[in-house]
Amino acid sequence: MGKVERFTNSTTGGPVFVDVEDGKIVRIIPMDLDASDPEGWTIEARGRTFKPPRRTTLAPHAAAQKSMVYSPKRILTPLKRVDFDPKGERNIQNRGISGYEPISWDEALDIVCDEIIRLKREVGPAAILSTPGSHHLWGNVGYRHSTYFRFMNLLGFTYGEHNPDSWEGWHWGGMHMWGNSHRLGIPEQYDLLEDALKHTEMIVFWSADPETTGGGIYSAFESTPRRYWLKELGVKMVFVDPYYNPTASLFCDKWFAPRLGTDVAFGLAIAFTWLTEGTYDKEYVAERTHGFEEWKDYVLGKTDGVPKSPEWAEVESGVPAREIRALAREWGSKKTMLAAGGKGGFGGACRSATGNEWARTMIALLAMQGLGKPGVNLWSTTYGVPADTSVWFPGYNEGGISGDLINTVAGARLANRMWPDGGPGTNPQHSTEGQTVPRLLIPEAMRHERLEWRGKGFCTSSIESQFQKYEYPAPGYPHVHMYWRYGGSFIGTMTETNRYVRAYREGKVGMVVNQSIWFEGEARFADIILPACTNFERWDIGEWASTTGVGAQAVDQTNHRLVVLQKKCIEPLGESKSDYEIFSLFAERLGLGDLYTEGGHTEYDWVKRMFAASDLPRLVSWEEFERKGYHLIPAPAERKPTPALRWFAEGRRRDTPDLGPRPWDTVGLRGLETSSGKIEFVSSSLRRFEEGGNIDSERPVMGPQYLPSWEGHRTPELCKKYPLQLVSPHPRFSFHTMGDGKGCWSDEIKDHRMLIGSRYYWIIRLNPRDAAPRGISTGDLVRAFNARGEVILAAQVTERVAPGTAHSYESCADYEPLGEPGYSPDLAGCINILTPKRFITPTSTGTASNSCLIQVERWEAQDHVKASG
């Protein structure tokens, strides 16, 4: 037995202590604070004192990290597909079928670099397509916005642009009602915990489940105590969700389960009640909104002859009119927070055919009750704790070591601190400016189809950037011929994902490289596999759960601001290497080594530079930081709360520490980013778009409007074939694909996967009224299918899901076809095989995964599966 040494590290689900004995991790536990750490914040409200626990929390997937490090699915050596000859027959039709043989790093480098050079000479740098997974292992150096972009920008490539697939409706719809483009359509959240503890009387959780989705994002269970506090203060909690979710099971006072796709009808009926009973904030509406009277006529039925009454909404939503009216009356009589999604804007309802209008509905209801006034805001209990935002440490989208001024927000603060004299870090080669491809259309690009779309992924520069037209191939640019895949699999996270499988096998991309930690998902379709290591096997640094860059000053979701030195705990397993080392090897082989490493920088060197570029040196020395392994940035000793949007409600100049709206988008830093500076029921940006000859009937100028889903209860022919509506929110026990499969501990959680025979199956939940006629009981294997594909799942029969609805979390990590890949049932649980590839609206490049009709039936081939399991 050797001596146990304790290291610090951080994950996408919380900071941790890592105990190592004889070079092996023996335990990973949540990080506790010690007596030397400063006291946390204090809030006095309603005669009580509230203080956060002096400890951190850990998400379920992060608690399983040890088993993930030592997973039997770890890739421990470079691999080459056995029938792939880079100088001869490549046999792409065998991807996903043929096996692999180990090769040396030198051979892998030779094969890939030879292809890169050939394509650059014969086709051009844009012939290389690359994209990372949505989320990677934590750390500012090793994260996808950092070391990945640094290499790819030097190489030159076609970027698979990401879309905001957790908050599509807020981005493509809500932004046109209240701006916030710098936050991708989501508003600021400052000091809303204190505001709620002092003033709020009711919270409506609408498509919100913070106990499941890591609070806001990455923050584990930090917000759970806040909901208990609010409950103890007598704050009523109402839930609107087709699934009685885990947050509801802890805190719910009333549950509404409207039919999928009809939330807008439900919301309009609430507004109708307020309008007809006069229980809305007329003065606020008159002073802070634009176009309200035109929308009012629509809600009252003067425009189209259809009053949006509770009785009308009952027909659409299935919720009794009396209950809609009762909710409207209680809401209108109380100071109410609207928790619409997990971050003050997110939510599965926004990832649907009507998601843009749902987000606009949430904004409309808030506007009618005085958004920004005490106790009234868009707040999901997950952000808005007291935090010292004057201390800056770069967040996960501020570019790390990339110096990328296009795909990250490095230009705002980080780049000039990391490279004060300029240099290669601040002037990367941005092939992404010439040609990009939405990741939702990567399969079509791999098939060399010609494509057109609107908006370049995350449209942060302005509201109008959503309207810019793009095409593939871009004028003068080639089709892609090589695909370098990095991070988690899209088969589990995008839409109609058999497309991705078929594109690998039937497309026109001659080489696929996959840089991954585990052999799962899309790694199975690569020609060359590069083994990466976990964050426990390299050096890094990062602030826990700081999404700054995608959300301005987004450091106010965890109870304590912790910057963690992510120490290298163990050596990389096998021949795996850190992403930085992998890219350094390729850069050296391509003659770009000095440019990439800036003269031989190690990851440890970059960590020290990141520390020095931040504000931490004025609080703590590097030596003390390295010794302790973390630093707690104290809450301000004296502070004046600046609740989010209070300045807007009171018609004042913005006084929050937000980084936007930008000065040129407002008048004297007053008002919102919209042209009127107000909440727009008649959107000036959508009107200009329409006046330019661009008609999108699913994204109307005046709104919100109720638009029946193009795949839902108003599509009768589809309903006859596929009578169940599938809802597939983000998973509870994994973080997208992280923490699922891999033979890790998460599989053993009974509500994550179900052990049947020798295989752990993904779960689908059915109401007893839907299960009984199909002869389905809990523990049965079932086949969920539609015209797009089929998935084999384990049934869980429960009253927690509404009749007519099937619930199954998305983002399983693996893909295991029963027969021919792309054409046969999947055994791993890839629900997104069933979801539609159609965009949220014709001019909104976003997913509509929760507009999905399926059929479910018992699966009779169980003996075959048990034998093959």
Span between termini:
37 Å
DSSP summary: helix tally: 26
Strands of the widest sheet, in order across it, are 7-6-20-19-18-8-9-15
Principal-axis shape equals globular
Average pLDDT works out at 94
**What structural class is derived from the secondary structure elements?**
alpha/beta
Q: From the structure provided, what is the oligomeric state, counting identical versus distinct chains?
A: single chain
Largest sheet: 8 strands, mixed
- Give the number of DSSP strands: 33
β-strand percent reads 15-25%
The portion of residues assigned to helices is 25-40%
Instruction: Compute the CA-based radius of gyration.
Output: 26 Å
Low-confidence stretches: 424-432, 865-869
